[in-house]
Design brief:
- The chain is mainly α.
- The chain has a single domain, classed as Up-down Bundle (Ferritin), CATH 1.20.1260.100.
- Helices cover 82% and strands 0% of the residues.
- The longest helix is centred in the N-terminal third of the chain and has 30 residues.
- 31% of the residues are buried.
């Protein structure tokens, strides 16, 4: 893969990854000052600005992990399986935001975030086969989503009568 094509693939992966994140924020951002702000939250709940910062950093890291995987495979076609796994976990992440914030349904979102975590682990495994560095780059993302699952579960339990 030429340097120009490689940079183009990286740009596309960044745009797609941040695009999905931006679409998800259409559901989460309005809820932060309304519905979500009114919920009882568990210990260790970080401030909203920190959550946004972490997601912004993670999107860059996972986009680079996908790019490293494509490069290690020798191109997009050769990395099709890995990119499908990557796309599935992006879509599950988007759907979690839609369910949790858009539909205000932490119970259903908990199922969604468990599916997301499993998809991230599968993507990490696929990336690992092509590039150990790319696989390892998915670890912070998997850990953050696991932490988010804790927050999701606790919010569901602490606020059950409220919804």
């Amino acid at each position: 893969m030429t340097r120009t094509k490689s940079l183009f693939v990286f740009a596309v992966l960044l745009i797609v990854t941040y695009g999905v994140g931006t679409l998800a924020s259409l559901f989460s951002t309005p809820a932060l000052t309304g519905w979500y702000a009114s919920l009882t939250k568990p210990p260790l709940t970080p401030p909203d600005w920190l959550i946004s910062l972490v997601w912004s950093i993670l999107y860059a890291v996972i986009a680079e992990a996908a790019w490293r995987t494509v490069r290690a495979a020798g191109g997009v076609r050769a990395a099709r399986r890995e990119l499908v796994a990557y796309g599935v976990q992006l879509l599950l992440g988007f759907s979690w935001s839609l369910i949790f914030f858009g539909l205000r349904n932490p119970g259903a979102a908990l199922i969604g975030i468990i599916m997301l975590e499993l998809a991230i682990l599968a993507t990490m495994s696929e990336f690992w086969r092509r590039s150990r560095v790319a696989g390892m780059m998915m670890i912070p993302y998997a850990l953050w989503v696991l932490f988010t699952a804790y927050l999701n579960a606790a919010i569901w339990l602490l606020n059950a009568p409220a919804y």
